[in-house]
Structures are given as C-alpha cells and as structure tokens.
Amino acid sequence: MMDSASPTWLPCGRHRLDLSFPRVMGILNVTPDSFSDGGHHLALDDALRHAERMLAEGAAIIDVGGESTRPGALPVTPQQELDRVAPVVEALVRELDALVSVDTSSPEVMREAAALGAGMLNDVRALEREGALSAAIGSGLPVCLMHRQGEPRDMQQAPRYDEPVEEVVADYLGARVAACEAAGLRRERLLLDPGFGFGKTVEHNLRLLNRMDRLSRLELPLLVGMSRKSMIGKVLGRPVEERLSGGLALAALAVDRGARILRVHDVGPTLDAVNMTWAVLKEGC
Predict the structure, then answer these.
(1) Cβ distance 33 to 66 under 8 Å?
(2) Residue 130 to residues 105, 125, 135, 154, 208: CA-CA distances in angstroms?
(3) By C-alpha distance, which of 105, 99, 135, 147 is closest to 122?
(4) All residues at 6 or more sequence positions from 64 whose CB lies less than 8 Å from its CB, including other chains
(5) How far apart are CA 101 and CA 66, in angstroms?
(6) pLDDT at position 40, please?
(7) Cβ atoms 88, 129 nearer than 8 A
(8) If you write DSSP's letter for every residue of 120-169 in order, what string do you get?
(9) Does 138 or 4 have the greater pLDDT score?
(10) Given this model, what pLDDT does residue 73 score?
(11) C-alpha distances in Å from residue 168, one per residue of 116, 175, 176, 225, 253
(12) d(Cα 62, Cα 15) in Å, to the nearest integer?
C-alpha cells in the first residue's frame, strides 16, 4: 500500500501529480465506436470543450484514446490512431495546459504523444506490443500497465481463469513490472490497472474489486476504470446512460481498496464520491 501520510509525486512531463490522495482522470474518447461515448467528440472543438468541462469539474488528468477497446472492437492502424489523437493532445496541452494521458498500445503514438507534450501513457496491453517498451522508455513518461485476457475483438467471448482472478492479475502485473525494470523502465514511473472488463466475467470483476488489496502488495499506484461498464449494467439492469449511481458505488469501493486514480466519464459526481470516501477513511476533510 502506498504511504498516504506524505505526498507521493509522480513526474508527468511538465506536470507533477500528487498521488498522496485519490485523483480523478477524465475519459476523452476520440473514436467513432467506443462503447459509451463513441462519435461524441470527434471534432477537435467538441473534444476541447468536453475536456474543458472535465477540468472545471476537477479532473486532474485527461485520458485521450484513439482506438476503441470495447468488447468486439477491431484494431486500427497507428496512422488512424495518430490522426485522431495528435491534434487533440496538441490542443489540450497548448490551450488548456492540461495533464494529458494517452491511451495507446502503439509505439508510434507513444513517441508522437510525448513529443506533443503528453504527461502519461496508458497501455491496455502493458507494453507487450513490439516496440512499445522501447518507445515508453524513450518517452521519459510514467506508464500505466493493464491486465487483460485476450484482445478486444474476442476477450469477452468466454473468459475463464484456472486460478483465483486476483492472483492471476497480480502475477501478470508483477511479471510486467519486472520486464519493464529489466529493460530500463524505472519502477517509479509505473502504475497498474487491474483491467476490469478486459477478459473477465461479472463474477471475475466483482471478486477482483473485492480483493483488490492483493494488488496493493505490488506497492505501485493503482489506476481503476469501471465507469459505465457492463458489470454495472448486468448487476443493476441499467443501460449505459443510467449507470452513474452504480459507478459511484464502485469508485468509492475502489478508493477504499487502494485506488489512486479513477478513470471515469462523469468527473464531477465521481470526485464528490471519492472525496467523501477519502474523508471517512482519513477521518477528516
């Protein structure tokens, strides 16, 4: 578990992120087919205005993604991803001075994002794609490594685990951390994401969240993304546009179990839930 009694600063390019308390990361998908907001922010001005709203609501980070990783999604080329992401990253940095994370597995996108002023990389494939680890090292940026089983096109067809899911996730992320360190990517630049919804049934997701303290033993900041996901819909019987209440409950539970970054669509309400949960845990404002 991270020591929450003293500031824990994560260097993010021109920014420094204090992770001594939980922070909220706002999702900005510039894709036509993301599961919740696909096609809503394709125009540059729409993307900027949405990011501006999330920052005003208290987002510490804006996470920009140009490749949908929803279940069933097909891959895109690095050039397609760059064409979507690069103008948005450049504008967010130049016009809003935002701390920008780029959600990508592509080494080409990693390099260009760093050159444009992004402050963090967020890779659902944990730098396993050819050239990604080298690109991440060269960027000088912190990187979030995520667990997944399979690829988006097939990951939810029949996910199964022969060992408890929390042990599988912890072992995988521990191995990826070791591989990164062996290649020269320093441990203090790493964050971890359990990968809720990435090759996991509802039962897997619920168990993983309930036992997320197992991942805290890896002693790295945890980034968690459960906002509007199908696990909420299946438990509560809610369509994607009615999953806020369930998402707030999950955010509070994640903070209680050690999450330091919550990746969400609904920044303002989530920040209230996070701050209230944190006040209870710390027994003070």
Answers:
(1) no
(2) 9, 11, 10, 20, 29
(3) 105
(4) 28, 30, 85, 88, 89, 92, 100, 101, 102, 103, 118
(5) 12
(6) 55
(7) no
(8) EEEETTTT-STTHHHHHHHHT--EEEE--SS-TTTTTSS---SS-HHHHH
(9) 138
(10) 67
(11) 36, 11, 12, 18, 21
(12) 13
Are 10 and 19 contacting, i.e. CB atoms less than 8 angstroms apart? yes
SS (H, E, C) 2-35: CCCCCCCEEEECCEEEECCCCEEEEEEECCCCCC
Helix (H) or strand (E) holding 207: helix 202-210
Amino acid at 124: V
Q: Are 126 and 145 in contact (CB under 8 A)?
A: yes
Sequence letter at residue 218: L
Q: Which stretch of 88-102, 104-118, 146-160, 262-276 has the lowest confidence by average pLDDT?
A: 146-160
* Exposure string for 196-218, b = 16+ CB within 10 A, e = fewer: bbbbbbeebbbbbbebbebbbee
pLDDT of residue 63: 98
Q: Distance between CA 145 and CA 105 in Å, rounded? A: 10
Task: Give the total residue count for the chain.
Answer: 285
Give catalytic residues, as residue numbers.
229, 263
| Beta carbons of 32 and 42 less than 8 angstroms apart | yes
Bridging pattern class, strands 259-264 and 15-18: unpaired
Mean pLDDT over each residue of the chain, to the nearest integer: 92
pLDDT tens sequence across 68-100: 776 766 778 999 999 999 999 999 999 999 999
231 has pLDDT over 80:
yes
User: What is the per-residue pLDDT across 140-149, written as a single tens digit (0 to 9) for each?
Assistant: 999 999 999 9
Of the candidates 210, 215, 167, the residue with the CA atom closest to the CA atom of residue 190: 215
The verdict on pTM exceeding 0.90 is: yes
DSSP letter at 262 equals E
Angle at 218 between CA 217 and CA 223, to 5 degrees: 105
